[in-house]
Amino acid sequence: MGARKRLRAEEIKATKSTTAFARLNDSPIAPRKMRLVADLVRGVEVNKALNILQHNAKNASTSLEKLLRSAIANWEQKNEGKSIEEERLIVRSIEVGGGAMLKRIQAAPQGRAHRVRKRSNHVTIVVDGAK
Predict the structure, then answer these.
(1) Which positions ≥6 away from 68 have C-beta within 8 Å?
(2) What is the DSSP pairing of strand 19-27 with strand 113-129?
């Protein structure tokens, strides 16, 4: 392995040691609705993000709150000696992607039918210590 490649690999390894993530698959909320709540906490400090999610009226905020708590627990497990208060964790990124779609039929006038698409999503949240 070359010197530059080794240095880059060590740099990536160091950044991975300070980050933690959590993933939620097949959440039964439409991705568009989940993105509205995810945009509120992206790039925000973790305690402030939890406060925002607790006081938000949208249904998606409860799922994101549980996911954020899971990411924090993963970070604490990875960095056993450190605490959240000392490190100042930040929500680095939240990615909301479309999941599987349930296709149903809704009865319509004059013998017709309309398609109802029940959307789901996948959410990935990355938590990192501030530098």
Answers:
(1) 22, 41, 46, 49, 50, 53, 91, 125, 127
(2) antiparallel
pLDDT, tens digit (0-9, with 9 covering 90-100), for 27-69: 999 999 999 999 999 999 999 999 999 999 999 999 999 999 9
Q: How many CB atoms lie within 10 A of CB 29?
A: 21
For residues 104 and 115, is the Cβ–Cβ distance under 8 A? Answer: yes
* Cβ neighbours, 10 Å, residue 30: 19
Backbone angles phi, psi at 105, to 5 degrees: -110, 135
Task: Give me the domains of the chain, ranges plus CATH numbers.
Answer: 19-129 (3.90.470.10)
